[in-house]
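Summary for the funding panel

The consortium committed to producing paired sequence-structure records for every protein in the target list. Below we show the first two records in order, beginning with the earlier of the two.
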Amino acid sequence: MLAYLFLLPTLIGLLFLTLGPVIAGFLVSFTNWNILLPPQWVGLTNYSALATQDLPRKVLGNTLYYTLINVPLNMAVALAAALVLNQRLRAVSFYRAVYFLPVVSSTVAASLIWTWLYSPNFGPINYLLSLVGIQGPPWLGSTTWAMPAVIIMSVWKGFGTNMLIFLAGLQGMPQEVQEAAMIDGANRWQRFWRVTWPLLTPTTFFVLV
């Protein structure tokens, strides 16, 4: 009973600020409502209208594109950084702070920096590409390259949080298992694939959810 008492603030917030609005929005989608007048039930009319338009399909496609690329890439970068920072390195605390810095940095400042980096005329990215004979695209002004550019910025901005979670999972692993694998002759890749990765399954699920 005491545990539920401590969980009560979170459950209330989940119900009224997250789950409640989602359910309400789903129910409203079956009505014709302009806020000023009472909602009128129209069933699947709104969904059938969306199915006949091109813009909703493009929005859905862009959302799937962003999600299917951004989420695995974010997790992969976060896990790789966590594996590196889990080693006995000099000034490892400094590197952890540096990798986490984009998370706490201002979104406006980060957007301005990346807008400059992606500038087709004055950006350093296209300048570096020109040094090897590649003409850089107009990143944010191209229908082909705008989404990859946004995904790269999103991964840079957000992988620090997942990195810390993976790092906590790595440091919570029993070292006896790793030592046993080393004694059995497992190389670094085998230890990661057959020992570290399976033990990180709960952490990975938490990051994914």
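The next record, for a separate protein in the list, is shown here:
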Amino acid sequence: RTRLLFPGRLSVGRNVWIGDDSYVNAYARDGMRFGDDVRIREGAWIQATSTLDQPGVGLVIGSDTYIGPRCLLGAGGGIRIGTRVTFGAGVQLLAENHEFRDGSRPIQDQGVSRSGITVGDDVWVGNSVIVLDGVTVGAGAVIGAGAVVTGDVAPQAIVVGNPARVVGTRS
């Protein structure tokens, strides 16, 4: 019961599993690549492009990475997820922002900005975390459940809250 659009733009390694009721739209400038032993649980929504005339950048998921149930990966600006990364349920990575500052024009006519999101190796992202466009999460970081990440997270940092703030380190 998984829907896969533009499968020719998706490259997968060995032992890749995509759960039931997931939606993957691989139409992107750079396509999508999933490494070996990637597990994407049920109900995932993965997309880089909403309209065919403005393709997004794409998505790379490193090997031995687990994406929990009901995760949303909006890869318009590009998302790079490292190896041995674990996402809890309901995580959202949103690599695109709508422009809205010109009050004389409808928001839908103002376009988008795209910077991209990078998640380093060996990162744990707790349930219901939201990571916004332009963020880099350093290797070994931990993001606590429900955090909203609006700025970069240093390697080995432990962050929680809205907006996310450092509460410790793993080293």
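Regarding this second record: The mean pLDDT is 94. The radius of gyration is 16 Å.
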